Amino acid sequence: MQVQRLDSLAHVEATAWNALAGDAYPFLRHEFLLALEQSGSVCAHTGWLPQHLLVTDADGLCAIMPLYLKHHSRGEYVFDQQWAHAYQQHGLAYYPKLLTAIPFTPCPGPRFAVRAGVDTQQTLRLLLTTLQQLADEHGCSSWHCLFPDTEQLNALQALPLPIREGVQFQWFNKGYGNFNDFLQTLSASKRKMIKRERRRVSEQGVHLQTVIGTDVSLEQWRVFFQFYALTYLKKASQPYLNLAFFQQLAQTMPEQLLMVIALKDDKPVAAALSFIGQDTLYGRYWGCYEDYDSLHFETCYYQGIDYCISHQLARFDSGAQGEHKIARGFEPVTTYSAHWIKDAQFALAIADFLRREQKAVQVYKIEASTYLPFKKCGTD
């Protein structure tokens, strides 16, 4: 096996990359990652320098791993700034670091892909050796793999690498025939709350339109981007993504895009964009011109649940954070990240921190589960 490093996904054919990545998880697709690069959302200027790894053998491409050289920790959703501060206090540089992740996308999924019949563990060991060589070459403190799925988590643990845990909230389709079937599983108070929120949106004269990516117009994309950018501008920050990124996705992978548009007097007032996976809907971006009572819940959660039920998708991953999702039927799930730390002393210190943090995270997950709105046995 040989490992090749690429400074852009433009240097590998989409068909070759996607033959391994597939389309079940949309964010590993060549089209998604290339749009990030070609739009300028991911580049040296934004602090994401592509260093993608390709592994070849006698039969051709056998493994892929997206990789970035980072000089900050923004857009990652696994927060290691305290580690960087500790390095600084000890007169050491935490940045640059190496990162295997999907930029700005805290959605668990595959973080590398290996051709069928190729030994995954052997390939991963080869990739880790290459990563360690790259760390020496660039003066990197570490390598981090964020939000791997559970299958790849096992391979990372076997290297072995210390694992960090986190919690997100996701909705699961338990064979519901319609939205009302889902409501019937909830306690009476939460059922009434959701009905009231949905009714309140309608009472304000707002109605929702769901549009598959192939049918979204250029004007709708322009308006959606304004909403998306406003979400950041209201917090006095700049959006991670630009209009060119969304326009490129509209051309290259529209079949996996789903836009929900909120209209009042036939004019858009809010919108949300999701990605359609094989068995999962991924809610990603949202924005509005002005606030309407319960519109965020309707646009970002209830419309997504409706879509999952009607299209028999098993899961709705609506992104990071959001304890308010619990009352609306989103269950706490564990997320993971793996970390290789070059400095031996810091590696021990961080591993100890992760062991202690893990206990607190697991307690939090258990406590969060007690607030789920589902009926208890024998109650309404």
Average pLDDT over all residues: 96
Helix content: 25-40%
Radius of gyration computed on alpha carbons: 22 Å
What is the helix/strand order?
EHHEEEEHEEHEHEHHEHHEEEHEEH
Percent strand:
15-25%
Number of spatially distinct domains = 2
User: CATH H-level name of the largest domain... which superfamily?
Assistant: Gcn5-related N-acetyltransferase (GNAT)
Largest sheet entry: 11 strands, mixed
Q: What are the low-pLDDT stretches, counting only 5+ consecutive residues below 50?
A: none
What does this structure look like?
The structure is a single chain. This protein has 380 residues and is an alpha+beta fold. It folds into two domains: 2-167 and 333-369, 3-Layer(aba) Sandwich (Aminopeptidase); 174-313, Aminopeptidase (3-Layer(aba) Sandwich), CATH 3.40.630.30. It is 37% helix and 24% strand. The strands form two sheets. It has an eleven-stranded mixed β-sheet with strand order 2-5-6-8-15-9-14-13-12-11-10. β11 and β12 form a beta hairpin. α2 (30-38) packs antiparallel against α9 (243-252) and α7 packs across α10. It is globular, with a radius of gyration of 22 Å. The model has no long low-confidence stretch (mean pLDDT 96).
For the structure shown, list the relevant keywords:
380 residues, alpha+beta, Aminopeptidase, eleven-stranded mixed sheet, globular
Kindly summarize this structure in a few lines.
It contains eleven helices and 15 strands. With 380 residues, it is of the alpha+beta class.
